[in-house]
Design brief:
Length: 355
């Protein structure tokens, strides 16, 4: 495994901002991961783990330690009693992996089509979209413990999955490097069409859509919102949704409803965790004076999706974060809700992350 110096990270991310890594290496095998960790430890360097680069904002100063790109490939699957088990290397392209599961007529990930990034990043953030989350199908996560270099398998119950979170980006953050993820899918299962956009897309169909048709529809809907990577489209030059949908208590939600009523507005919402409610961050952004296409200098909001902060060309990370802070402050001022950022900020703290 080659360890290089002063390697630019911007081109390895979908947002395409940020400075260089002091050291950079690519791990194609598990032993490469261990070798990289040893190098970082022996040189007293912070370690940053890079996956598909889809949920990151790299600081303009770059990364002062070792950036390790996970490139572990391989997809294996087996069947048993109507269930198909897939094991995928953490470096596999996520959308390519979803395509493979659909090609094998296996349901459970079809609504997660078109999401950029790698397999290894999906359990970290508990990736979800269009009515599905990976936590519904993940069986196990194999990772290497940074402190001991030993392998550990996390069963689903060990992962602490919650809305856009897991132990890997919460209490165990920085302690493990994910190398493989195992999923249990339903062979010949029906696709899920629970999300409003999908219901609208298939309204009037006389026959139930196939998994492949649902996958195609999800990708088409994502493309219409600038959430499908298309070369040359600046509205796709983003880190995806920059803010999480807030999950509020009953009391907090009532306060937001009161403020909305005073403006003769109705809040789109849906039941979330027990006595809490999840509301649309996009709605909050757009009703705080930030329309699609808003921007300044080299950054802006996507013309097709209110939650995507885009690099219009030559942007700096500081400009991206300045726009994000402007949005957060304004939403909090108007609605009393502090939006939580979704992307990982690389260079702000020394930690192991994955995306």
């Amino acid at each position: 495994m080659e360890i290089r110096e002063h390697v630019s990270l911007a081109g390895m991310t979908t947002l395409q901002v940020g400075g260089p890594a002091r050291y950079f290496a690519e791990a194609r095998f598990e032993d490469d991961v261990r070798e990289a960790i040893r190098f970082a430890q022996s040189h007293k360097l912070p370690l940053f783990v890079l996956g598909g680069g889809s949920n990151l904002v790299v600081s303009d100063e770059g990364w002062p330690g070792l950036a390790l790109k996970i490139a572990i490939k391989g997809i294996n699957h087996r069947h048993g009693h109507g269930v198909a088990y897939f094991d995928a290397g953490a470096g596999e392209d996520w959308d390519g992996f979803v395509a493979a599961t659909v090609a094998h007529h296996c349901a459970g990930l079809e609504c997660l089509s078109g999401i950029p990034g790698s397999v290894g990043g999906t359990p970290v953030q508990n990736v979800g979209a269009y009515g599905q989350e990976v936590s519904e199908t993940i069986q196990a996560v194999e990772a290497i413990e940074v402190s001991t270099l030993e392998s550990r398998e996390f069963e689903k119950g060990d992962c602490g999955f919650a809305y856009r979170s897991s132990v890997f980006n919460a209490k165990e953050r920085g302690k493990y490097v994910i190398v493989k993820v195992s999923y249990a899918l339903k062979h010949d299962g029906a696709p899920r069409i629970a999300y409003g956009d999908l219901k609208k897309h298939f309204a009037g169909w006389s026959e139930s859509p196939t998994l492949a048709q649902v996958r195609e529809a999800v990708r088409k809907i994502r493309a219409s919102k600038g959430m499908l990577l298309v070369p040359g489209d600046e509205d796709c030059r983003s880190a995806g949704s920059f803010f999480k949908n807030p999950v509020l208590s009953v009391e907090q939600f009532a306060e937001v409803e009161r403020r909305a009523a005073a403006k003769n507005l109705a809040i789109p919402s849906y039941p979330a965790l027990e006595a809490q409610r999840k509301i649309s961050a996009a709605w909050l952004v757009e009703h705080s004076g930030f329309s699609k296409g808003y921007g300044f200098d080299h950054v802006g909001i996507s013309r097709r999706h209110a939650l995507a902060i885009v690099n219009r060309g030559g942007a700096k990370a500081s400009e991206v974060l300045a726009l994000a802070e402007q949005i957060q402050q304004r939403v909090e001022e108007i609605w009393g809700v502090r939006l939580e950022r979704e992307p990982v900020l690389v260079g702000e703290r020394e930690s192991v992350v994955s995306s």
